[in-house]
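Quiz preparation item.
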């Protein structure tokens, strides 16, 4: 079972690398468009910035996890490389699993946008922004601890969604 925990961790880092490559391409395209328009990247209001990051980063990342885990391969690129897969009783289970998995990601994005806004205004960060910055980290830590407790087979979001991770046999 220890091996399954390690496989999940490595799969996560492989998937994170895929996401980083996507984000860098997205940033490159955005920079190029702004340069062609003769404009520089300027900070946005946090609500607008979060809407842009939601549409261009969070939703595509969610869809990556959802569609790859729902596919016949039952796993992301990282899971496929590590020869593990997600087993679900229902298609909606994969959806629920990934909603819970992406929550810390989106909460952190909201916190970052508001942190940048307050920093640019020269203001101290309100407590609620600190909560948005620290809370997601604690939630991810909780998710990770539940993976260890369950010997790699499931996490908190797997329990909620009634899914689990198993070794791929074929």
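Solution:
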């Amino acid at each position: 079972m220890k091996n399954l925990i390690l496989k999940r961790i490595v799969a996560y880092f492989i998937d994170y690398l895929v996401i980083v490559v996507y984000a860098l391409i997205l940033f490159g395209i955005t920079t190029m468009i702004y340069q062609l328009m003769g404009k520089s990247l300027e900070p946005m209001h946090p609500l607008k910035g979060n809407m842009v990051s939601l549409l261009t980063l969070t939703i595509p990342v969610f869809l990556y996890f959802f569609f790859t885990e729902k596919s016949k391969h039952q796993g992301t690129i990282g899971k496929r490389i590590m020869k593990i897969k997600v087993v679900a009783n229902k298609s909606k289970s994969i959806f629920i699993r990934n909603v819970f998995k992406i929550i810390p990601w989106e909460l952190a994005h909201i916190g970052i946008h508001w942190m940048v806004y307050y920093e640019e205004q020269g203001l101290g960060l309100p407590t609620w922004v600190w909560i948005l910055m620290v809370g997601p980290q604690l939630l991810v830590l909780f998710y990770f601890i539940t993976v260890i407790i369950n010997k790699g087979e499931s996490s908190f979001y797997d329990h909620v969604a009634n899914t689990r991770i198993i070794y791929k046999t074929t």
